[in-house]
């Protein structure tokens, strides 16, 4: 049961390590330059919210609902998105730092990652069908039994995806980054 409800409110430059974010539902709210680092956001519902230039690093998001949420220019290192409430889970990431985060076993088709740093992110068994990774860095990211059907990697780099262990039907790559599909074979591409 949701006790507190916030609609179309703006939260600017709030340090939620010093001020607790009330448990409840946040609908159409904007959070700008807020610090959520190491905070417990469990069981909070964010619906059609936007987070701009926020720090979420190492936040706890167990049973947290993210429905039609946009993250822009935010630092989100080490977040276990795999613990989120999966009902209607939907978000986009624009110019975010997502290093060491986990999307393990999530069904997040059509997700957009635009100019994101995704170093050492775990996408194991994730359904990313028809997603778009535009100018994103995947250094040491994990793809294992991941559904990447129709996913767009044309402008991404530093990925290593084993075609034998992932679903790649109709996925899009460029001539420049195709080596990321062959890295396990240790071939030299010139």
- The proportion of residues forming helix, as a percent range, comes to under 10%
What's the CATH topology label of the largest domain?
Pectate Lyase C-like
Tell me the name of the CATH homologous superfamily of the largest domain. Answer: E3 ubiquitin-protein ligase SopA
- Quantity of strands, as a count: 10
Radius of gyration: 17 Å
Distance between the termini: 59 Å
- CATH class identity of the largest domain: Mainly Beta
CATH architecture of the largest domain: 3 Solenoid
Strand proportion: 15-25%
Note the run of SSEs as H and E. EEEEEEEEEE
Question: What is the domain total for the residues?
Answer: 2
| Estimated structural class | mainly beta
Q: Biggest sheet, open or closed, and with what strands and sense?
A: 10 strands, parallel
Number of helices: 0
Please state the average pLDDT score. Answer: 94
Low-confidence stretches: none
Overall 3D shape: elongated
What does this protein structure show overall?
With 190 residues, the chain is mainly beta. The protein has two domains: 97 residues, E3 ubiquitin-protein ligase SopA (Pectate Lyase C-like, 3 Solenoid), CATH 2.160.20.80; 79 residues, E3 ubiquitin-protein ligase SopA (Pectate Lyase C-like), CATH 2.160.20.80. The protein contains no helices and ten strands. Strands 1, 2, 3, 4, 5, 6, 7, 8, 9 and 10 form a ten-stranded parallel beta sheet that branches. The protein is elongated. The termini are far apart. 33% of the residues are buried. The model has no long low-confidence stretch (mean pLDDT 94).
């Amino acid at each position: 049961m949701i006790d507190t409800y916030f609609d179309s409110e703006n939260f600017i430059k709030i340090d939620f390590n010093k001020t607790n974010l009330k448990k409840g539902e946040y609908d159409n709210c904007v959070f700008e330059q807020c610090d959520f680092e190491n905070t417990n956001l469990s069981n909070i519902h964010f619906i059609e919210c936007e987070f701009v230039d926020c720090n979420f690093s190492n936040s706890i998001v167990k049973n947290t609902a993210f429905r039609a949420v946009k993250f822009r220019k935010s630092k989100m290192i080490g977040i276990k998105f795999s613990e989120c409430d999966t009902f209607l889970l939907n978000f986009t990431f624009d110019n975010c730092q997502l290093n060491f985060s986990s999307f393990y076993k999530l069904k997040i088709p059509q997700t957009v990652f635009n100019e994101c740093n995704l170093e050492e992110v775990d996408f194991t068994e994730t359904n990313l069908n028809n997603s778009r990774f535009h100018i994103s860095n995947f250094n040491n990211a994990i793809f294992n039994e991941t559904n990447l059907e129709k996913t767009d990697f044309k402008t991404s780099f530093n990925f290593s995806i084993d075609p034998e262990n992932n679903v790649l039907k109709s996925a899009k790559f460029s001539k420049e980054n195709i080596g990321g599909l062959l890295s396990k074979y240790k071939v030299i591409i010139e």
